[in-house]
Amino acid sequence: MKPPSMKFPALRIYAIIYLLFLFAPIILLPIFAFNEGKIIAFPLTGFSTRWFETLWERPSLHSAVQSSLIIAVLTSIFATIFGIFAARGGAMANFPFKGGIIGFIMLPLVLPEIILAVALLVLVTKVLGLAPNLYTIVLAHTLMCTPYATSVLNGAFANLDASLEEAAMDLGESRWGAFRLVTLPLVMPGIISAMLISFIISLDEFIVAFFLSGNVTTLPVYIYGLRRQSDQLPIIMALGTILVALSIILLVAAEILRRRGLRRAGLEDAGGFL
Amino acid sequence: MAAGGFISDDGRRALRSLLPPFVYAVFLMAIPLATVVVVSFQIRGAAASGEWLDGALPPPVAIALRVMVLLYAVTLPFAFVLVARGGNAGRISRFLLLAAPLWVAALWLSWSYLATLGFGFGNYASVFTDPINIRGAVRGGSWLPGLLPRSLFVSVAVTAATVILAYPIAYFISFRVAPENKSLWIFLITIPFWTSYLIRIFLWKVILGYSGVVNTALTGLGIIDEPLTFILYNVNAVIITLAHAYAPFAILPIYVALEKIDRSLKEAARDLGENRLHTFLRVTLPLSVPGIVAAVLIVFIPTIGDYVTPELVGGSGGLLIANRIQALFLQVNDPGLGSALSLVTMAAVGIVAGLFMLSLRRWLKRA
Amino acid sequence: MSGSPLITLRGVNKHYGDYHALRDIELEIRQGEFFSLLGPSGCGKTTLLRTIAGFEDLSSGTLMIDGKDMARVPANERPTNMVFQSYAIFPHLSVAQNVAFGLRRDSRPKAEKARAVAEALEMVGLAGYGGRAAHALSGGQRQRVALARALILQPKVLLLDEPLSALDKKMREQMQVELIRLQRNVGITFILVTHDQEEALVMSDRIAVMFEGSIGQMADPETLYRRPNSRRVADFIGKMNFLSAEVTAAGATVDLDVQGLGRGSIARDQAPNGAPAGPAVVGIRPETLTIVFDGEHTDRRTIDGVVDEVVYYGDMTYYDVRVPGVDEPLHLSMRNVIGRPVLDVGTPTRISWDERALVLLDA
Ligand SMILES: Nc1ncnc2c1ncn2[C@@H]1O[C@H](COP(=O)(O)OP(=O)(O)OP(=O)(O)O)[C@@H](O)[C@H]1O
Ligand SMILES: [Mg+2]
After folding, report:
1. Measured in angstroms, how far is the CA atom of residue C88 from the centroid of ligand 1?
2. Is C53 within 8 Å of chain A by CB?
3. Which of B159, B203, B356, C331 could bridge B300 with an S-S bond, Cβ 3.0-4.6 Å?
4. Which residues of C touch B3 (CB under 8 A)?
5. Top-tier CATH class for B133-366
């Protein structure tokens, strides 16, 4: 047999161009972030870290980061807890309407974000009579991240032999004890992975956060606020570089954990998230 | 297995486990959406006039009448259900239903009561009559379509571009990449998705701009003399940016569908003398249709809700329906009209997606 | 092997929705017994075992273990332990941690527990394996870990759900012997689920044969083999020839007229379901029929036939012999000893049989 690349090189070339298209923004980001010039364009004018340094001198940015971190941490905890419930239930026995219930839990994945934002804004302001605040964003982000956490955890739970928990109960543990001593350690990599994914999504989410932010500014809302000032663009690049680096580090960690979890359960890799 | 209504012990345990996220989703989706429906009938400015009956009747009588009218209106459907069921309650309800004219009056009264509170179809009327939303208008001598059809068009274009660009990649990963490298490739194509959404849009602005990366590179290489202007601040830029953002959503479902194809089927087709293109058209492509459908839906539905991309890279002509909804809520402060427009948009998306599925099913049956 | 009943099931039923998985099960299992549940796939063996273990609730009936009603006793408080079909070894724990899992609530000092673990591992032939990662074990080793893990708790009853079905034939036979030895040594009551009739016959003190949720026959292996009470049981355990017959008289002995064999009389205990006059079916095992080779002599009754099919099996040869007046050819098996030729298809032959080998069944 011929090596695959010989069979159809056009496809491989296309794949590489496509990857370039996908990664173009990420590759350019640090280039401009470390560029001396104020104008974001080629040719580059020289290496500088001054844009990163200015980041330190902005208290409004710091409070935005703080809000975003609080939101992202809370969201990742809640979404992962819901994800554990959903994935565990999904892996257990069937009953009527189970598919519908799971479908409803996964629905936020395809709901246009603006609709979600509108609906939640109306709920918070009209029905509950509250001003939108940090915690309304957490509510919304938890809803949006739960499907992602669920699909990450689905792999972990679906691969779990149901008789393991029964065996633990047979050996004297209560239902909760069996879950804690057997199931939890086995799905732990999935749990951490789900938390990281939810964290990243929440940290980056803009559309809903903007609707529900009220007087809180999250990091994306802050960045959005800079959109009209072209002299702020290099600062956005610097900020973006940090964010992207953080995302990639977390993502790689999540992926490594997910794979380790699979290996620990002695299973084949069935593909990535989603 | 068992007939209706049976839930085994394990099933009940599964249900119990699914309940918390389900209830949460209901609370944060169904209830808000229901509220949006209610709010969409609330007309701004037409606040409670308090004229209805109150002027003519002493207040206690007016209040009592209101309560009665509302009670009638609310219990009407239940009466119908009870009649259908028969029994004692059914008989009483039948008697009540005999007073059908009374119900009609009650409905009319309750509606007019709601109208005094500022409810009505006004928002929907303006959604359909205001040229900016759907109808479109002639402006400056040229036809400017309404925002909703434009948005649907852009979403369709984005979906088509994304899925068509994504298919070869999914095919490549599924059939050309060695099995041990597949998950690495999948990981690679998902990375850009996980990096800040706003930052990515800003970067596309930089890449596609008048003095952006593409133009400086092309002029620098002497390929063009003048910078290209058709790539930023118009619909093209929106399509490119969104095709980039939704790439993994298109690739993954198709990849999953392709992975499920039995490899020996392709070989069998090849054995039967089909050439490579025929094998693809007659075996691989039809079998990957479920993946394509999933990709289309998962790209098409969410793209309609994006208002940041049009605003940042779409220019003045690139604004879409989501921008209008956002403005209605956050700038114009007309949640009633905004809600009505959101619901009409969602319905339109649903109809387009439904038509797509329907025609696809037709086409598959014929083929 | 006798003693007081340790486990009693009375009128036990289990429904899954409309599906009736266990039907009126009546069962008594004695202390120290090796009891097997045998039956075709889907007949409810696992369900019955899981009912005893406490993983399934009863729809009706009572289950008593050691004189106590188990209705409200959850699985973790029952004096039973189970070896799962998949073994359910905890993959994140070492072998020793797996075995020690059930000792968590035990108040004994650490050193004593460690000694108990070592003993349990030694008992199943895994001495020195304690530090191994559980997910790196072979099938047979997993099975032993599962056994040690259950036995260390010294349960009153050990439940085994097809513990040997995942092993290859050689390993399976070796483990059968080891399980019997183990059971004799520890004196714990074993309830084994299997669909392998040979395994059940080899290992058990008593066997319950199940069909479609109910128990068809419950007896010791020899009775089950020699005196099955129905065609279904006879068919499921080993091979049997069935001949239509007519009961002509029943007194101290039973007089019969058997198709192809002629008139005869059998003892009362050869008719497990009684012998009402009228049409019946007679069963006869293949190995109780013997071909009378040329030059051999027999005092038994004989019939004539023609060889219809020959399957040579090394130590044995299986024949189908067509006998005038019998619809189906008779199956019979002959040990291949020196001087016995293997007959060809079409050879006229004489078969000897014995009235004592017959069993009378309902038509
Ligand atoms: N949780 C359940 N819900 C519904 N039906 C079930 C359930 N568990 C078992 N059954 C049904 O009950 C019947 C008996 O199942 P059981 O597992 O006890 O069979 P078995 O005798 O152990 O078969 P095998 O030899 O294949 O393991 C089967 O028809 C099965 O489909
Ligand atoms: Mg079974």
Report:
1. 19
2. yes
3. B159
4. 17-18
5. mainly alpha
Q: Angle between the A113-122 and B31-39 helix axes, to the nearest 10 degrees?
A: 80
Q: Which domains does chain C have, with CATH numbers?
A: 5-226 (3.40.50.300), 239-363 (2.40.50.140)
By CA distance, what is A85's nearest residue in B?
Answer: B17
**Dist CA A224 CA A201 (whole Å):** 17
C56 → chain B, closest CA residue: B9
Q: Do the Cβ atoms of A146 and B25 come within 8 Å?
A: yes
Selected residue with higher pLDDT from C322 and B82:
C322
Predicted complex ipTM: 0.83
Q: Tell me if chain A has a CB within 8 Å of the CB of B261.
A: no
Q: Is C74 on the interface with B (CB under 8 A)?
A: no
- List the residue whose alpha carbon is closest to atom 7 of ligand 1: C16
- Contact partners of A by the rule of 3+ C-beta pairs under 8 A? B, C
State if pTM tops 0.95.
no
Residue C147's nearest CA partner among C174, C179, C176 is: C179
Burial class (CB in 10 A: 0-12, 13-18, 19+), A227: middle
Q: pLDDT in tens for each of the 367 residues of chain B?
A: 333 345 677 788 888 899 999 999 988 888 888 888 888 888 776 554 444 444 555 666 666 666 666 666 667 667 666 666 666 666 666 666 666 666 666 666 666 666 666 677 888 888 888 888 887 777 777 777 888 998 898 899 999 999 999 999 999 988 888 888 888 888 888 888 777 888 888 888 888 877 777 777 778 777 777 777 777 777 888 888 888 988 888 898 899 888 888 777 777 776 776 677 777 887 788 888 888 988 898 889 888 888 888 888 887 777 888 888 888 888 888 888 888 999 999 899 989 989 998 888 888 777 6
CATH code for the structural domain at A59-264: 1.10.3720.10
Least CB-CB distance to B2: which of C16, C56, C57?
Answer: C16
Name which of B26, B199, B301 to mutate to probe chain A: the one with the most chain A Cβ atoms within 10 A of its Cβ. B199
Q: Would you tell me how many other CB atoms lie within 10 Å of the CB of residue A181?
A: 19
Residue pair C246/C256 in contact by the 8 Å Cβ criterion = yes
One-letter identity of residue C20: H
Q: Which atom of ligand 1 is nearest to the CA of C193?
A: 22
Residues constituting chain C: 363
Q: Tell me, using a 6 A CB cutoff, whether residue C37 lines ligand 1.
A: no
Q: Which of B304, B309, B319 is nearest to B350 (CA)?
A: B304
Our CA-based measurement puts residue A217 at a distance from the nearest CA of chain B, in whole angstroms, of 15
The atom number, within ligand 1, closest to the CA of C48 reads 18
Those residues whose C-beta lies under 8 Å from the C-beta of residue C173, and which sit 6 or more positions away, are none
Q: What is the interface size between A and B, counted as CB pairs within 8 Å?
A: 286
The helix/strand/coil state of C199 is helix
Structure tokens at A70: 């609080």
Distance between CA atoms of residues B338 and B316, nearest Å: 21
The domain ranges of chain A are: 59-264
